Amino acid sequence: LGIRSFERIRDELKLNPEHRPHDGRTHFVTMANARVDEYAIKYMVGHKISDITERSTRAANLLGFERRLRK
Question: Is 67 helix (H, G, I), strand (E, B) or coil?
């Protein structure tokens, strides 16, 4: 979604004109930090983790997160 498309939709919905495309992502991460594993959040929002220890931990955490979701 380009900035012009976002602005058009935002204006059609009469949303706050100061709202920016990244605001929803920022809000999601802020709210999720209280309840969701940080590696799961990073995975969901597309952040890359370059450290091998963090990648291994992330894989294990995501597997556990997926199992909890399926309960």
Answer: helix
Kindly report the pTM of this predicted structure: 0.52
Cα–Cα distance list, 39 to 1, 32, 43 (Å): 26, 11, 6
First to last CA, the chain: 34
| CA dist., res. 51 & res. 13, Å (int) | 42
| Cα–Cα dist 45/39, whole Å | 10
Give residue 7's Cα distance to chain centre: 21
Q: Each residue of 17-68: pLDDT tens digit? A: 998 888 888 888 888 988 888 888 888 888 776 655 555 566 666 666 666 6
Could you tell me how many residues make up the chain? 71
